[in-house]
Write a structure and sequence with these properties.
- By secondary structure, this protein is mostly helical.
- GO terms for molecular function: [glutamate-ammonia-ligase] adenylyltransferase activity; [glutamine synthetase]-adenylyl-L-tyrosine phosphorylase activity; ligase activity.
């Protein structure tokens, strides 16, 4: 007699009875084989748990005695359908396979041979195999009757089956329903003699498919099919064409349908059509912005579930009850819906694969993902054990002591107290994390203050409340109060606000009192209103941005602080509200980024788009530039980034974008024309040379990029593609493509304005020059001002080898002996010409850049010194930025340290004020009595060097 030593006494009679019944069905030979195999204690425990924990397992083994032996002998029975030749034989084959696989999953689980992930994966694979086999069979049968369904162009159509819920995530459990949606590409007709519309064809196909899976026969059923997730639910058509689905979800799709669509996955049908369908549905599921409105929907769904739990007494339901499976899913899917539009990695359907990603990306605290994963595994194992008992879809924990003991034993616990203690601990963890993610945020302001502002906002357009509202605004520092009240009233009664849907209006009504409360704490509350309200107006039709602020109190504080400090930041946020996402993490916002980290971050951002489409990648580049510029500006106004670091950061940002934009352009050109002769993947024989502020590492907000393109490939060579062109045309088109990527005005505007006039011969010269032609031009034709420009030139992207060659050539050209008298005359003449055309100063105002003693005077002084003295002191032209050249002049003994220090201090002061004015969107002009000492110092040095 088969016994298991650790089986509880209360369960031994059942175990012995089940074993006897199997022995009677199996016969002596099989019993003998089984007893030999059961000398293995692990197999013995697994079989004992299966026979006591699952009536379904016991019945299936009695019906097919050989199955038990096969389970003991093998670690995996595999997954395959036998041949079938009729509807009846198909249905029989599907059900017998389902029964065998379910039996195996129960045994492998209880014997701890498979973890829960593998068990769910096998059940999901079973469902896919059965759906696909039935779909193909019934499609062929219908084609014989009606012909192939075709679209208006004669293209053959096929039905795509979307698996939703746990099937979509490959997390299917024992005795689970499968939620499906049926779709086909386009309307049309079949091509047979008995022609019918595609809609009729696919509707009949769907009905036959459901019947093959759903109908209960002598062999049981395959899967219960639930079609209620389709558009319009039970009242909608069983199958829809793609355009109808897209229209439904874009115009009528509800938040719970977004939640359901997170796990949607094609499980059967033509892969090309399936890919097309998923691309159509993606914009509905995932927003391009960070979408905190998903939190509201999840709260509402959870509140509804909790009401049902209380009404139906389901507190012991491990799926729907507090701390249950559904709450773990909500935690993970909240982040998917909020951030999945921006981060394709978070579109992972499988929860156990998704949780580590949430921790890696910093969305949950360290250790939380592992803790939740362990909780989820236990909850799912308990769910499986409950459903294994009678092959019923249940998640209710038993109340009966004997049933509790049976459940605990099946799951390998010593007793029910141990199991239920673990469950209580697990559910507490899940409940805690669920409340952390889904629970409403704490109020930003004191409740009393918030109530006051709520009352004011609610009555702002009522004449009877005007006096009281003016007094409240005045007391809070909104002066003049009349102007503040007018701003609020104009917004409150604006046609756009009046026409808002109820949900959007509720979000605005929640936001405005919070804004007033936080603005009232600032030094200039009215200034805050003037700068933040344009942003409010810009997001009214996309009120999910208001939810982002409402859900994240620190974001509003950060928003108000930055907008108070800089109208430029306020305007940038109003024009591109998607940048509000960057305010979510103040540590990241205010943390300076190194050049290498910046390039890596951009690379990850482009990979994250998950798209090879150029337009999409151009948008990603623009968002990256805007977000990083916002971070740099925030760091500057907060004082965490000094002037020199601001220019460095803006320069590194431009370099990173140039490198990646060049890579995009290069890949497109190579794909179209092939590789140029002599070039390779590692050396494109093309480089971008930066001049001006980019070359001098002195970029500021809104600066143009002065760049020159250079190549050193054989101009007579040709590319190796089928559509080959000569090298010169290739590199010219490469430069044009790069300029297109940088300058094209997309929805997010251009990346940078590009100026290529510093190339040899300016606008009349070739767009791309060779190294040889560049050297010849510099020696024979270049003007003195072009040699001055070369002082600040440096390679920033492209071939490393060619960049190094350019560096050597630049040093050689700058170190050649010059006629100092002619050089001095040319520099003075160019400076006078620039001042005459560009100086915006007058008797009352000083132009920081072009005024006498200003920025350009320092730059011209430094460039003159570099060109005049480099032949004897090459080290002074090693660097391209003005400050380090001045320091090099000191190191070389060519300028007193005191004089260079004065010039450096003046240069920093001018540029610092220029940055401050740029953030305030003001021209770089100050009153004439400003910087008098600095200007005298610069003029004295000018007089000394240039006379």
């Amino acid at each position: 007699m088969f016994e298991c030593a650790n089986c509880p006494e209360s369960l031994k009679p059942q175990l012995q009875a089940h074993w006897r019944d199997w022995c009677e069905q199996a016969g002596k030979a099989r019993v003998s084989q089984a007893e030999d195999l059961l000398r293995d204690q692990a197999l013995q425990r697994g079989l004992a748990r299966s026979l006591t924990g699952s009536e379904f397992f016991f019945r299936q083994c009695c019906r097919q005695p050989q199955l038990l032996l096969r389970l003991l002998q093998s670690a995996d029975l595999g997954l395959a359908l036998p041949d079938f030749d009729s509807d009846a034989s198909l249905d029989c084959a599907l059900r017998r396979l389902r029964n065998r696989v379910t039996t195996e999953v129960i045994f492998r689980d209880f014997a701890t041979q498979w973890d829960i992930s593998r068990a769910c994966l096998r059940l999901s694979a079973l469902a896919e195999l059965c759906i696909d086999a039935a779909l193909q069979w019934h499609h062929r049968q219908l084609v014989q009757r009606y012909g192939e369904p075709r679209d208006s162009r004669g293209q053959v159509q096929s039905m795509v089956v979307l698996g939703m819920g746990k099937l979509g995530a490959r997390e299917l459990n024992l005795s689970s329903d499968i939620d499906l949606i049926f779709a086909y590409p386009e309307p049309g007709h079949t091509d047979g003699e008995r022609c019918v519309e595609n809609q009729i064809f696919f509707q009949r196909l769907g009905q036959r498919l459901i019947k093959s899976l759903n109908t209960i026969t002598a062999d049981g059923f395959v899967f219960r099919v639930d079609m209620r997730l389709r558009p319009y639910g039970d009242s909608g058509p069983l199958v829809s064409h793609f355009s109808a689905l897209e229209d439904y979800y874009q115009t009528q799709g509800r938040e719970w349908e977004r939640y359901a669509m997170v796990k949607a996955r094609p499980v059967a049908g033509d892969k090309r059509f399936a890919t097309e369908l998923m691309a159509l549905l993606r914009p509905f599921t995932y927003r391009r912005y960070i979408d905190f409105s998903a939190i509201e929907a999840l709260r509402e769904m959870k509140a509804l579930i909790q009401r049902q739990v209380r009404a139906r007494g389901l507190s012991d339901n491990i799926k729907l009850g507090r701390g249950g499976i559904r709450e773990v899913e909500f935690i993970a899917q909240a982040f998917q819906l909020i951030r999945g539009g921006r981060d394709p990695a978070l579109r992972e359907r499988n929860l156990l694969k998704l949780l580590p990603l949430l921790e890696t990306e910093g969305h949950v605290e360290a250790g939380v993902a592992g803790e939740l994963a362990d909780c989820y595994r236990l909850l799912r194992r308990v769910e499986h054990a409950l459903q294994a008992q009678r092959d019923q879809q249940t998640q209710a924990l038993p109340q009966d002591d004997r049933e509790r003991a049976r459940l605990a034993y099946a799951l390998g616990r010593d007793n029910s107290a141990q199991l239920f203690g673990e469950l209580a601990a697990v559910r507490n963890v899940v409940e805690r994390e669920f409340d952390t993610v889904i629970a409403p945020p704490a109020d930003i302001a004191e409740p009393r203050v918030a109530e006051e502002w709520q009352t004011l906002w609610g009555s702002v357009s009522e004449d009877g409340s005007e006096e009281i509202n003016l007094q409240a605004l005045n007391n809070a520092g909104f002066t003049p109060a009349r102007e503040a009240l007018d701003l609020l009233r104009d917004l409150n009664v604006a046609p756009m606000v009046v026409a808002l849907p109820a949900s959007s209006r509720a979000r605005l009504d929640q936001f405005m009192p919070l804004l007033l409360a936080v603005a009232g704490l600032q030094q200039q509350p009215l200034l805050v209103l003037n700068r933040v309200l344009p942003l409010v107006r810009s997001v009214l039709r996309r009120s999910a941005y208001l939810v982002l602020v409402n859900e994240n109190p620190p974001v509003l504080s950060q928003l108000v602080r930055l907008c108070s400090a800089s109208p430029r930041i306020a305007e940038q946020l109003a024009r591109h509200p998607i940048l509000l996402d960057e305010l979510l993490d103040s540590r990241r916002l205010l943390a300076p980024v190194a050049a290498a980290d910046l390039s890596d971050e951009l690379r990850r951002e482009l990979l994250r788009t998950g798209s090879t489409d150029l337009e999409w990648q151009m948008e990603a580049l623009r968002y990256f530039k805007q977000s990083q510029s916002l971070r740099i500006a925030a760091q500057e106004v907060s004082g965490t980034l000094p002037l020199m670091k601001v220019s460095d950061a803006l320069t590194w940002l431009a370099e990173a974008i140039l490198q990646h934009a060049l890579h995009l352009a290069w890949m497109q050109m190579v794909e179209k024309y092939g590789l140029p002769a002599g070039a390779s993947e590692g050396d494109m024989r093309f480089a971008i040379i930066a001049y001006g502020k980019l070359g001098g590492l002195e970029l500021s907000y809104g600066s143009d990029l002065d760049i020159v393109f250079m190549h050193d490939a054989d101009p007579q060579g040709v590319t190796d593609g089928s559509n080959g062109i000569d090298n010169l045309r290739f590199y010219t088109r490469l430069a044009q493509r790069l300029i297109h990527i940088l300058q094209t005005r997309t929805l997010s505007g251009p990346l940078y304005a590009v100026d290529t006039r510093l190339r040899p011969s300016g606008n009349s010269g070739l767009l791309v020059t060779t190294m040889t032609a560049f050297e010849k031009y510099q020696r024979e034709s270049a003007w003195t001002w072009e040699h001055q420009a070369l002082v600040r030139a440096r390679p920033v992207a492209g071939s490393t080898r060619l960049s190094n060659d350019f560096q050597r050539l630049r040093l050689k050209l700058l170190c050649e002996a010059r006629n100092e008298q002619k050089l001095r005359k040319d520099v003075i003449a160019m400076r006078d010409k620039m001042r005459a055309h560009l100086d915006q100063g007058n008797d009352k105002d000083f132009d920081l850049k072009h005024g006498v003693g200003g920025i350009v005077d320092i730059e011209f002084l430094v460039q003159y010194a570099a060109l005049a003295w480099a032949p004897t002191a090459p080290s002074i032209v090693r660097y391209t930025d003005t400050i380090r050249i001045l320091e090099s002049l000191v190191d070389a003994g060519l300028m007193p340290a005191k004089q260079a220090g004065y010039l450096i201090d003046a240069y920093k002061a001018y540029r610092s004020e220029g940055h401050r004015l740029a953030l305030q969107q003001l021209p770089g002009i100050v009153r004439d009595d400003h910087f008098t000492a600095e200007r005298k110092t610069v003029q004295a040095s000018w007089q000394q060097l240039l006379g």
